[in-house]
Q: What sequence folds into this?
């Protein structure tokens, strides 16, 4: 039973990171119908930014809490500026072009960013400092759930709740939903659609960066390629939950994380991906729009 | 006479080799209800799309003269959201509400360009954001009362009956605080009772100081509402004048009914 709980928590941790990244995929897809394949790289850049900032700050002897906050903030801002710029130079000029063109532009952006970090940081794995200490009050539970799992779960829950409230109630959130539903009409009621789309990229990128920092500290090493695998997994999570749906991305992330964790624990870690993607195939066969996706009738 | 609030000079629109609209002139004066009529495919909706910035016209000029006496604004080349910000709002022939949002939210969206709170304010609940949100909700309720949807504020837009959806579109347009309202076939698909209510609503909106330009096929409504009517066919203006003048114009009769109706 304890083994089960341990696997359960490790699955939740994994799942919440997938969910954080999947939110970026699903928000962008919802609003401009594009799979932003460079999103995984944004996450990787977030991890690297926090790595650099955390290393520098720890050299100067900053207290741990301020390192976490500052590194997270720096990663979020830096990745957000990448997201903003990518949208502006790689996707906006192709807004009226066929979808495939923008998709290829996204793949190109992803490859470019990977290689750019490869050149700047070499292909070696860099040891990532452990940012989250073992809390004393976690001591009795430490054999099945680590302190960093708790921090990750808590942070992602907070981020998701904040995002949901923002989209549901704020002025910009309404503008985002309106733009997603009918872009022309949104413009006609006075919404600056370009600004809304930029904001979507900025928010998605910031969330991915925070995910990048948390998981890098959890696993303890990073290199230029981590964004690719994480991106594919998060994309799977978004599709699993129903791409375009925000609660779907969260649900998809957790389902995927738990599946992987149990598959690793009860079968073999070699089968982690087999189970994850078999699940995806099964769900797409029986529910093509994903768990929470709406099947839309084709408009004629 | 003061300058017209909307002044269109020789507006033309070509799609490839097809001239959808040819040197159309049109004026709307303050407090007027002006109708644009013509057979199907005459170019009426194209005209609306050019004026509101959805299409980029291939020739001619569109000027907006705010009734408060500010400088004339040239609309050519502005984006739809900028046009809306300048004070002109429109509705669509086929209803284009945000179907998955509530009635209240649809109207609140209309106030987007009149408000300014951003992410920072929303996250930290600053005083100005809270005040702005409160004002937005209050004003939206007032507008919904005006169009008779006060008891449906929390319904999803897609669940409203047809006539109510049309009125919600008008409410959303009004929320952008326009001085000029463009209505594209507001009575399409309405029953006589709903049309009658719409007639009253449009009059009420005019009495509040808005100017209105409408496209409409329901001639009874057009004749009862309009101060002035423009008739277009094949992208050209074939007549303009008061309802009485237009309805007896031979060119108009020809366009609608064909040549000679000798028995």
A:
């Amino acid at each position: 039973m304890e083994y089960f709980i341990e696997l359960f928590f490790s699955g939740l941790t994994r799942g919440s990171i997938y969910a954080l990244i999947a939110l970026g995929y699903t928000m962008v897809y919802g609003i401009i119908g594009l799979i932003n394949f460079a999103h995984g790289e944004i996450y990787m850049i977030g991890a690297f930014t926090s790595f650099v900032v955390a290393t520098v700050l720890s050299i100067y002897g900053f207290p741990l809490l301020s390192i976490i906050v500052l590194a997270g903030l720096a990663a979020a801002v830096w990745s957000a500026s990448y997201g903003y710029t990518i949208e502006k130079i790689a996707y906006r000029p192709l807004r009226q072009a066929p979808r495939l063109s923008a998709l290829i532009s996204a793949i190109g952006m992803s490859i470019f960013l990977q290689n750019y970090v490869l050149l700047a940081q070499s292909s070696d794995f860099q040891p990532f400092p452990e940012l989250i200490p073992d809390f004393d009050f976690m001591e009795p539970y430490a054999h099945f759930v680590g302190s960093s799992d708790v921090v990750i779960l808590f942070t992602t829950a907070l981020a998701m709740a904040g995002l949901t409230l923002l989209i549901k109630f704020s002025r910009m959130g309404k503008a985002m939903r309106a733009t997603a539903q009918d872009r022309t009409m949104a413009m006609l009621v006075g919404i600056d659609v370009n600004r809304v789309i930029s904001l979507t990229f900025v928010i998605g990128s910031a969330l991915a960066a925070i995910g990048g920092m948390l998981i890098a500290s959890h696993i303890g090493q990073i290199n230029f390629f981590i964004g690719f695998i994480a991106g594919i997994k998060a994309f799977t999570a978004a599709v699993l939950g129903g791409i375009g749906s925000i609660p779907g991305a969260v649900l998809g992330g957790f389902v995927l994380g738990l599946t992987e964790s149990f598959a690793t624990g009860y079968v073999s870690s070699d089968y982690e991906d087999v189970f994850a993607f078999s699940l995806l195939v099964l769900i797409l066969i029986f529910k093509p729009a994903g768990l929470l996706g709406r099947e839309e009738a084709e408009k004629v | 006479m003061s300058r017209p609030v909307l002044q269109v000079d020789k507006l033309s629109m070509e799609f490839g080799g097809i001239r959808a609209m040819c040197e159309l002139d049109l004026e709307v004066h303050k407090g007027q209800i002006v109708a644009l009529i013509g057979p199907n495919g005459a170019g009426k909706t194209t005209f609306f799309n050019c004026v509101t910035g959805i299409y980029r016209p291939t020739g001619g000029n569109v000027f907006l003269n705010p009734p408060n006496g500010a400088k004339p604004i040239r609309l050519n080349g502005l984006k739809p959201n900028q046009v809306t910000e300048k004070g002109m709002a429109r509705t669509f022939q086929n209803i284009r509400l945000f179907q998955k949002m509530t009635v209240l939210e649809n109207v609140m969206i209309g106030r987007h360009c009149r408000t300014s709170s951003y992410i920072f304010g929303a996250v930290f609940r600053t005083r100005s954001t809270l005040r702005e949100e409160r004002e937005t909700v209050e004003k939206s309720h007032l507008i919904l009362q005006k169009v008779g949807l006060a008891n449906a504020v929390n319904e999803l837009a897609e669940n409203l009956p047809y006539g109510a959806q049309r009125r919600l579109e008008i409410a959303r347009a009004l929320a952008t605080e326009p001085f000029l309202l463009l209505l594209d076939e507001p009575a399409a698909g309405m029953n006589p009772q709903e049309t009658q209510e719409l007639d009253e609503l449009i009059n009420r909106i005019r009495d509040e100081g808005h100017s209105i330009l409408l496209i409409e096929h329901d001639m009874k409504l057009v004749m009862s509402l309009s101060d002035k009517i423009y008739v277009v066919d094949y992208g050209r203006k074939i007549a303009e004048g008061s309802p009485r003048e237009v309805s007896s114009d031979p060119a108009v009769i020809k366009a609608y009914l064909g040549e000679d109706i000798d028995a």
Remarks:
- Chain B touches chain A at residues 52-54, 79-81, 84-85, 89-90, 92, 96, 98-101, 105, 108-110, 112-115, 117-119, 122-123, 132-133, 136, 172-173, 175-176 (CB under 8 Å).
- Strands of chain B lie at 6-15, 18-28, 33-37, 59-64, 73-74, 88-90, 180-184, 211-215, 228-233, 236-241.
